[in-house]
Amino acid sequence: TNLSFFTPDPEAVKTQYCPVKSPILVGPLTIVYSKPPSLKKIQMKNPYVTHGGYFSPRHCFGRYRTAVIIPHRNREAGNGTFNRAKLLNIGVREALRLDNWDCLILHDVDLVPENDYNLYVCDEYSPKHLASAMDKFHYNLPYWTYFGGVSAITPDQYMRINGFPNSYWGWGGEDDDIAIRVRLSGMSISRTPLSVGRYKMVMHSRDIGNEENLKRHNLLSNTRRTWREDGMNSLVFSMLSREETPLYTNITVDIGNPP
Ligand code: UD2
Ligand code: MN
What we know:
The chain is of the alpha/beta class. The protein has helices at 39-45, 84-98, 155-160, 174-184, 216-226, and strands at residues 66-69, 103-107, 111-113, 128-129, 133-134, 150-153, 190-191, 198-201, 238-244, 249-254. It contains 5 helices and 10 strands, in the order H-E-H-E-E-E-E-E-H-H-E-E-H-E-E.
């Protein structure tokens, strides 16, 4: 028999789970912003990422299935009022249609991690804040309950807080609303230690259409009355397109306008 015909797929030789502590991690990373690399170059540096932005380790079974969800607008198109939390609800709903994820990473487009020991993995019992130390806050928390930037939450935890509020249009407040939801639903926030949760933000000014949300203090004082009705169970939007590129999947939606 010609056995070479039956050469096993490299995937098939996997016999073990990947180590909990990956040997290829290095810890602190030096991030310098010069000219942004082209998508082609990023593609060449990540040869095992497959169409649509999927990756799994080649020689071992990954322990977790993680989806990274990035709300963005204007960076390509769109000019209505921005709504970060609603876009994240949509990202989560669409991601959960695709796979049975263990963990959802909700990630600002402009934050780059500076330490690869900050694993993109969820905590079993608590939503986790990963961006604990950002350069723009002098590598500290701006205040103790801060929950912006990058977070890791399981689908169960996400549904337990009824997702994020749909009603925060423009800049600010939605992250504090989420922190309140976590507390009101009986959980607490866990956090990457400041020495590891370091991120560099691409310096930018406020986008047009993302003006400060002046209603946020009023909204926040009502969260305990509204969170059960405003969230994943009241999410309305229309899907415009879904495009798989070599490095990521882009979903374009119409989220409507502020009332
Ligand atoms: C802070 C928080 C962010 C969020 C926001 C208040 C940090 C690093 N992050 O962000 O998590 O709580 O305050 O809403 O402190 N975006 C677009 N297009 C736009 C506007 C926003 O794509 O026109 C997205 C993008 O992913 C961006 C994110 O929304 O990173 C947050 O907006 P920002 O970066 O302009 O605001 P920032 O840095 O104050
Ligand atoms: Mn930002």
